[in-house]
Amino acid sequence: MNDPDAQSSPASDAGAAPAMPLRLLLRFTDTAYEQRFVKHYIAFYFRYVQASLVLGVVLILGDYLVDHIAYGSVESNLLRLTLAFPVLLAGLGYTLLPDARRHWQPVMSGFIITAAFFLFYTLTRIDAEGGEGLRSWVGVLNFTFLQFYCFVILGVQFRYALASGLIILLAFEYTLWQHAGLTTREAAYWSYHVLTLFILAAGIGWWREYLLRKEFVARAALDDSRAAAEQRALRLAHYDEVTGLPNRRLFAELAMPVIERARRGGTGCTVLHLEIDRLSGIHHVYGRGEGDAALADITQRIRLCIRSGDLPAVGQAGENTRVVARLGDNAFSIMLTDLDSQERASLVAQRLLVAVAQPVLVDAQPLVLSASIGIALFPGDARDFTGLMRCAEQAARAAAEAGGAQHMFFDEALNARARDRVLLETELRQAIRVGQLCLYYQPKVDVRDGRIVGAEALVRWQHPRRGLIPPGNFIPMAEESGLIVPLTDWVLHAACGSLRRWADAGLPSLPLSVNLPASSLSDARLLDQLDALMQRYELRPSCLMLELTETMLMRDVTSAISVLERLRAQGYGLALDDFGTGYSSLNYLKRLPVSELKIDRAFVIDVARGGRDGALAAAVITLGKELGLQVVAEGVETQEQSEFLSVRGCVLQQGYLHSRPVALGEFEAMLRAKAA
Ligand code: C2E
Ligand code: CA
Ligand code: CA
């Protein structure tokens, strides 16, 4: 299991349909394969061998008795028994040895040849003493029998049968012509019979072996493909396909005994849970393949980093184990047994963070990723594996929520926060129903004359106990839990309701921006839902501006574009929110039918200092203008920022400098004042 790929066997590519004789022969030039072949048939042939040897003993005994009855006491007749008998019995004894099967073909041909020579000797002696040895058909039959014996007993590997058969044949010919005192006619007569029978026996032996081998190739291919499938199933069940790391299951199998040992030994161990930040963005934008390649790269670094050259195999966790596993799309877990102090765990985490932060090549471009690491210590944080994992995962989530690119230790407060989250979800469900949500409005201002040219509707949660909760604290949770759907329905209704109110009150009509969640683009109802709202509140689509982020569009560019085009055709405004924080390339940007770009606050923050972001912000403004889009800067907080942006042509701005998001009443007052 150490190397999941090291299992290929010579027959795995044999294919089920063998095999011209030559190709068949070539298969068996591999000694390992040949051994496998012999081993496969030996169990069957061994019984056969033993039976044949017993038959040999019986036949020799029979020959002795026949000769004894026919010719009386020819002295050498007894030699038959004293010489050949022990040899055959020794052969039989050999087959009972535990190790016999490994060498039985050469050893057995040795026994047969020896038996044959003893038989020559006996028969020539019988002839010399005036009996009927080689002169009788019974004597000659003995040899023919021995030759069949070779091909039957040594049938698995033809070459042994052929070699021993030939030796016996040559010796027999020699005896016929030299010693037996036969006439030439007799010798030629027996030669002819023995030779033709030899050819017959060899032919049968060869043909049978050919069939055996052919059958074996097919059977071995089947066995191999079954073994490979089992191996693969085992691998899939225990290893992650992309990185080759143990998966959650194997990780648990490896880690549980480690924790058990730590418990008994009174020592400690540590679990680090590492999540790559924003990896799903890469998957969405560049596709699975590129994302996986980046992941494999990072995996390599993580492994190097914790200096665990060899990953332990199933059931082999050693004393000092460092196990890396991939648990999910972007999540890794690392178990360290030789590490039980916060300081040292912290050092390892630092090292990991640095390793992950080295640029990776994605689609031939260097990208910098970051990770959030949660650390849990045994026995301090939890009593068992499951608890330890949960703690580490919670700590990692906290690290991610705190902005990522950092590590955090588990503590009780985190646990409390996790429980809180579950509670919050239940409460939010309730809140949407009973109307605890409200919209705040942040004006979008044209800095040239201070006019309000639009507004963004931002949701808030008026919680009865916790007070006003900002969207950052519940939108992500709503997205995860699916509550985002009813929440968005509510927001759209409220926004349209406000637009209607303003129109009725005779306030200037402005486009109102609404943030749409990622899921809404794949929601088939969206267009109908919006149209229904327009009818119900008697509004024109142009007064609604839908804000979408780059990352959510990039998930599935083609289908996003088709949805956007339909929205655009209906007359809705479309804005690309948080522009600059995603990974979209210019190619895509050109194809997106949006009308507005919102430069992310991150670029605006130190714009006035003329640093890199200043240059970037300026470039983005130019880009947006070139594409014919309306460019809006977000999060403008200072006069300096505002001026820098407007000098570069970005006069539409949104931010605390102009106004914070305000409640409905206050916003209406602002509108009225501007209108006056
Ligand atoms: P966003 O769409 O980028 O919204 C702008 C956020 O920046 C708002 O935060 C706004 O209050 C804040 N902001 C505006 N000007 C400034 C400034 O000058 N300085 C600073 N530091 N911040 C400024 P808010 O309201 O907390 O919303 C946060 C995020 O929550 C929004 O980011 C948006 O992504 C999401 N969100 C808000 N309302 C909704 C909603 O109704 N539906 C959905 N799906 N998401 C929403
Ligand atoms: Ca927005
Ligand atoms: Ca934004």
TrEMBL record:
Keyword entries, A-Z: Membrane, Transmembrane, Transmembrane helix
InterPro entries: Cyclic-di-GMP_PDE-like (IPR050706), EAL_dom (IPR001633), EAL_sf (IPR035919), GGDEF_dom (IPR000160), Nucleotide_cyclase (IPR029787), Rev_trsase/Diguanyl_cyclase (IPR043128)
GO molecular function, one term: cyclic-guanylate-specific phosphodiesterase activity
The organism's place on the tree of life at top rank: Bacteria
Keyword Transmembrane: yes
Stretches assigned to the GGDEF domain: 267-412
Coiled coil (UniProt feature): none
Pfam family, one: EAL
Domain EAL residues, every copy: 421-675
Listed PANTHER family: CYCLIC DI-GMP PHOSPHODIESTERASE PDED-RELATED (PTHR33121:SF79), CYCLIC DI-GMP PHOSPHODIESTERASE PDEF (PTHR33121)
Name of the protein in question: Diguanylate cyclase
Organism annotation: Hylemonella gracilis str. Niagara R
